[in-house]
Amino acid sequence: MINKTENMQEKKSGLKTFEGVYTPTLLTILGVILYLRMGWIVGNVGLTGTIIIILLAHVITLSTALSMSSMLTNIKIGAGGAYAIITRSLGHEMGGAIGIPLYISQTFSIAFYITGFSELWVSFFPSHSQVFVGVITWALLSAISLKSTKLAFRIQYVILVAVMLSLISFLLGTNLNNGSLVLKGTFSNGNFWSTFAIFFPAVTGILTGATMSGELANPRKSIIKGTLGAVFTGLVVYLFVAYWFAHQATQEMLLTDPSVIFKLSKIKILVIAGVMGAVLSSALSTLVSAPRTLAALAEDRVIPFSGYLAKQSEKGEPFNAIILSSVISVIVIVAGSLDSLAELLTMFFLTTYGMINLVVFLEQITGVISYRPSMKMTIFVPITGTLGCLSVMLLINPIFTVFTFSTIIILYIYLKKKNLTSPWGDVRGGIFISIAEWAAQKASSIPYHPRLWKPSVVIPIENPHDFKRLSGIVHDLVFPSGRAYYLSSTEDEKVEYLNQKEIGEVLAPLREDNIFIQETLITSAKFESVLFPALQCMKSSFLAPNIALFTISEEGEKRDKLFRLIDSMKGLKLSHCYLWLHPKQGLGLERKINLWLRDKSPNNDLAVLCALQLSRNMGAELTLCRVVKVDEEKKETAKKLLLFIEDARLPANTKIRVFSGDFIKHLKEINSDLSIIGMPPDSELLTKFIKESPSSILFVSSSGFEDALL
To answer: Are residues 301 and 422 in contact, defined by beta-carbon separation less than 8 angstroms?
Structure first.
């Protein structure tokens, strides 16, 4: 009960929809572009082009607002707004890769709005320095943002009234256009897309309310209602103002006079107050919201100096984040110009908007049950938003688009290395599962062909420590694109966690090389009793193993157990490999591999493919060996082996050696680090090979699904 009461008190003390979202979002939308660039846009591209620009921009922002609203009805958003949405769906790495550019764009927005205000001020007072005015304005707004968030938002009520009065004054003003509507543009000061880039910052305010999510009493409802309300209000205002400019002024006036709105107004002082108020409000809203994004990044330890930047004052203000944001913005104020900042902001915000839409699209197509938003929508909304953002970015500036995405990729790689952990989980796993499910369905419909073969090895192990001896050869058998399946058992469920930890340690070297590894741990008192059914189940699964790798022990009892297993698995359509590691030599220097091929043996294809993998990854020299009955057959056999080397596309340095007489005699005399031999027909012969061999042996038994000539 105490927690509930505290939560209710916190909600009551938070900002409401009108003051926390609708007002700051609307005032950010109705800002510097509306007053100082709208007339020029109409003059440059005409009313028709302007309407297309406004509608296109609002299609993107409305899609983003709807996508964001859908996400907000599915998750509990914390501080950070758009950054929090992306993080909770795509993880800290992608959230940070987008959140950092988003924060930079927000700090640039502060400079953008203050520069617009300074430009306007200097138009009334030409003797004043624009940079000086900008710095003074920046100092005053920074002081207000440091004082109190609520104070900053309450000032906006006065500004909202001033904006409304300025628009009324504009609509009641004098008509200075004796001709027809300015329908067509001259495009003398820029093409359509460069003009769009200058206009787009007008509608980037839709994230203002979302960024204040940590300060709102009810973030979910307030952000949705406030943002959508502000977007639709802004759309109506911009369309009507564009029409009024085209109706009230000539094209020449619109192109040459940035302050033409004052000449068209009934009461000039009201427009001046509205313009200055709207521009200052936009700057103040962004100056309040940008540090919240930075503080959220710091709280998740995504950025350097996280501990310092995440600190809050006694009033809950991110003091250090506000200071840094203010410093960055004042540097940009001194260095930047209004139009150059506009294009830069457009690219940054389009990236963020596109990612929000992409998140919703991915959530929808993965089909995970956890995505069940209260506010559902057709998948065409996020598709429209995503493609719209990407297309417009490419049309505005292809080079900067590539630079933007390259920056995101670099940030993602950097953050990935930090191994950030997310308590919320994310949709990335669902994306890959969906892709795998789709691929599995397609692959299952295609008949198997030996050309598709690649090593997929299951290694039955009774003890995790036994795997250490095999990790090297398992790596060389499957690297780089094969798969390894670790199959083991435990007698007691209570020690399963310990076994899992040991298994993780012995498999770590393979995972470091990005080898596909799957672990299967079975609770059973007798491993051999469950091995056959376990392999049957694995064989029936998608991405099934195609080779079972066993080790041949020096102990007679264990070797007998292995032979019994071999007999029990004859009906299993799975190739087998049996590794005997020489007790003294091991795999030696791993520089020489002898591949013994018996004429027309059913095991030759598997033996060749295993030899290829091992020789490539070990860097070993491969020698094809064959034993014939009499010396007269040697020459013809050598020709066949040379032809086989060519047909099987074996390494150019592959050697051949042909012997006659007793196989075991030559096996004993020919030096190598590893011999690969087809599986003998009985255990007695296998034991004899092992006894006489001076090096380790890999015996192979093919299931008939391999073909070395393909």
So the answer is: no
